[in-house]
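Researcher: Let's do a round of design. I'm pasting the structure tokens now; please hold your answer until I've finished.
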């Protein structure tokens, strides 16, 4: 009789590797690889909720230079039979099929629903959800349009990647102080989004990234909103063991 492996789901988001410089990013990459090394012994699945890289663009035959240790460790976990699910964020939204072909990691561009041990989850990066942020929502529609990607693809990678990295590092999510403050439930767009979703369907857990602030809030009866924080200043991650969801810090 084959023993059934107990549920142990891991969640992480917003590593922003490559920012603000490759040299400054490297210690964080090493820390993340050490975490992956630790969880590979009991993980039944790993969910990466976007912005793994501060910038990512896939030309037809070229991907950004670097991140070898991170990609190699993800390949190792995948080869061990651990399912990995990747949700694109606003910094790596131009990801297409490289992860799927090279690492056997499915890539999702929007929220997905799952049920584990009788608990329902809605999982995604979280950008562009909820009320407000209309400027970003308009900008995202432009960025993800096939014509925009076609235009960018005509830039030589040395120019295109350098330009995109410069603009990406200027993003307030990597450098600002706004995201270390809890704004109150009425001003947290993802909280408002989860409450609206609950009027349509019950979910036990909403798990998102993007916010960069570790949060675990009750948003309804037997319903919890979790934001995973980041791997810039918090080094936090989520764990679901089949009964409860916890936010933890990796030291």
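Researcher: That's everything. Go ahead.
Model: Designed sequence:
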């Amino acid at each position: 009789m084959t023993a059934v492996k107990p549920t142990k789901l891991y969640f992480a988001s917003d590593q922003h590797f490559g920012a603000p410089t490759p040299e400054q990013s490297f210690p964080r990459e090493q820390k993340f690889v050490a975490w992956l090394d630790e969880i590979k012994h009991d993980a039944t699945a790993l969910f990466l909720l976007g912005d793994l890289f501060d910038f990512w663009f896939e030309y037809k035959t070229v991907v950004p230079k670097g991140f070898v240790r991170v990609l190699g460790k993800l390949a190792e976990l995948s080869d061990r039979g651990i399912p990995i699910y990747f949700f694109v964020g606003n910094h790596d939204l131009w990801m297409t099929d490289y992860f799927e072909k090279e690492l056997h990691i499915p890539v999702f561009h929007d929220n997905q629903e799952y049920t584990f041990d009788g608990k329902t989850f809605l999982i995604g990066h979280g950008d562009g959800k909820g009320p407000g942020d209309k400027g970003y929502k308009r900008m995202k529609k432009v960025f993800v349009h096939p014509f925009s990607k076609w235009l960018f693809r005509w830039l030589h990678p040395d120019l295109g990647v350098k330009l995109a990295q410069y603009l990406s590092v200027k993003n307030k999510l990597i450098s600002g102080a706004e995201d270390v403050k809890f704004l109150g439930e009425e001003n947290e767009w993802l909280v408002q989004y989860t409450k609206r979703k609950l009027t349509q369907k019950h979910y036990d857990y909403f798990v998102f990234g993007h916010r960069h602030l570790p949060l675990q809030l009750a948003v309804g009866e037997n319903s919890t909103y979790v934001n995973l924080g980041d791997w810039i200043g918090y080094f936090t991650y989520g764990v679901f063991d089949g009964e409860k969801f916890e936010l933890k810090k990796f030291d």
